[in-house]
Amino acid sequence: MRRLPPLGSLRAFEAAARLESFKLAAAELGVTPTAVSHQIRRLEADLGLALFVRQTRKVALTPQGQALLVPMRTAFDSMAEAIDDLIEEARPHPRRHVATLSATAAFAARLLVPRVAGFRARHPDWDLRLHASDEPVDVAAGEADVAIRYGRGSYPGLTALPLIADGFAPVCAASLPLRRPEDLARATLIHIEQLPWTREASVPSWEDWRQRAGLASLDIGAGISFNDEASAIQAVIAGHGVALLSLVMIAPELAGGTLVQPFGPVIAGLSYHLVFARAAANQPAVAMLRRWVVEEFAAAPSAARITPTGS
User: Fold this and answer.
1) pTM value surpassing 0.85
2) Are 64 and 26 in contact (CB under 8 A)?
3) CATH, domain 100-311, list 3.40.190.10, 3.40.190.290, 3.40.50.720, 3.20.20.70
4) Which one of 44, 90, 114, 179 is most buried, by most CB atoms within 10 A?
């Protein structure tokens, strides 16, 4: 007769030990952190052993916990695989795989949507779900398999892979007669209101650019304002004015001549990173998206390689 503690306690232990967090384990299991803590304390009481060292911001395994994790992880992996195989055999059609990639609305529309056809050709067995939101998703909690974020690359608890560095400069339609910074005095300035993802991302404003360019007399208060980046870009393409835009975001239009960067200075931005939970690095969806995204943007033009049209 097998002598086993309750399965719920073992499951809570395996998740918390694997993720090194009661909070992440709770998110994975669909319960509260308090419930996970209760299950683990019950398991420790049943075994008469301390399995975790509770610290202020994290938990660590005791030697006994380390010894228990390996067979528990193997056991739960084997059970999950057996159930997956059983369900797969019973399906009338092969099961399709779904991978979720999150990015800001503008990044998804301008830089990911044009690449969807290539994704389908390369990964016919996968369905791609693009999650476009200017509010960052909780990748660690499983709201997306991976996400593309703009920042300095410091994302606690996540692995961050650099994709492309950004920069900002005045950009307009090729038809507008802008040749030097002083020409902005007779142009319509297009403004982008602060977006959720720009609050801590050092996205420059027209005031930042005016100071860098040394144009003390430029009135940067007038013009047209938009509350989303994509609409501002469309207004610039339509010839309605000049905007301080991300050069990465409009790289296709710059390359095709639809838009021009008539002059500098270029203000260095931060970088786009691909982020995912460290504990999920080997999951099929994460591994597949990681390869695809990194390869897609390996040859993308970074702002550091974009020079003004008139230079």
Assistant:
1) no
2) no
3) 3.40.190.290
4) 44
